[in-house]
Design brief:
431 residues; alpha/beta; glycerate kinase, domain 1; Rossmann fold; 2 domains; 6-stranded mixed β-sheet
Amino acid sequence: MNPRTFLRSVYDAAVARAMPAHILSPHLPPPPAGRTIVIGAGKAAAAMAHAVEALWPPDAPLSGLVVTRYGHTPPRPRGLAQRIEVVEAAHPVPDAAGLDAAQRILALTQGLTEDDLVLCLISGGGSSLLTLPCEGLALADKQRINRQLLESGAHIGEMNCVRKHLSRIKGGRLAAACGPAQVVTLTISDVPGDDPAVIASGPTVPDATTCADALAILDRYGIEVPAAVRARLESGELETPKPGDPRLARGETHLIATPQQSLEAAAEAARALGLRAYILSDEIEGESRDVGKVHAALARSTALGRSSFEAPCVILSGGETTVTVRPRAEGQPKGRGGRAGEFCMGLVQALGGQAKVWALAADTDGIDGVGENAGAIVTPDTLSRAQALGLSIGESLDRHDAHGFFGPLGDLVVTGPTYTNVNDFRAVLVL
């Protein structure tokens, strides 16, 4: 067995399980008596829209608009008529294109009746793609706050709590605008726990968090908002629709793909090749490098026969780790990387050249951070090969420079956009 080929095959199996064309059909509602308006946002939004177009009866009315990340619109299947418009915008920091898309999507909800259906297609990445700041907050403010949240080490629930309370469309507000139409949300989960209120900041589901929660998070990470906006948070004026809100009574949500399902698909692929597969969890959070160190300890004990896991095996995990960006020393170049690469660097450092251990960590959307790679591969000789090239794992970690570390080794995993997103994927192979 070629370890590189094996690791890539289980990653591909995980991604395939979350492809909209394969999974959307059982969850699609029947056409209503009136119109069907399709709206949505996320890295999988374009692929989901294509799947709806392919499955929807050709004689039933269908129109709408979804927004996805730049470069994340798949080729349209041959012969498939376009009935849903797809636009692209920036991620992870919002831009004017996302603002325009959000305004247009909100406008589509006007004038709906009880006979109409709003089909909302939501996936990870929707928080930045569906950007409509609250009154008093400029796009530049929203961009700054987003950057600071991303670099703060805040977990996804905290980030999205703030985003919801600083928005005119998130946190259930989009569904409230759709009344009295029926709202059916089809969601691909990219968050630990699969909470629809967290995925893309829950634009069509009730929000149990509060303005006070958002203020506490902003204060915890030292993030400032304009004084007028802070006053509106303190007064509760920016509160989101809560569970039981009658404006959301005609809404239902279906999870059509989850990280756990993709991990199970990867495990099945491994077992089909005759290898034991163990799933740790699909909800692992924490600093990426530290999660890498924990996986290294487990892999080493398994390789030495001191674990309840029996080698040869593959250990699988998912979730959403974080990278807290540390201040750079004066003159130190800025590194390039994301959560998957940071995990791999932590793993390499902790393994210290441990024999018989290989690994792949990659984001299932095909993009790790803002680079062109999905993640990286770790081999038993990663450390020695890096040292031969004059690369320091400690310095690379200090700069968060996974791209600069794994690139020269030829160990970046490059897939291009996958058109779906069930977040982090990690596979550690112990031979």
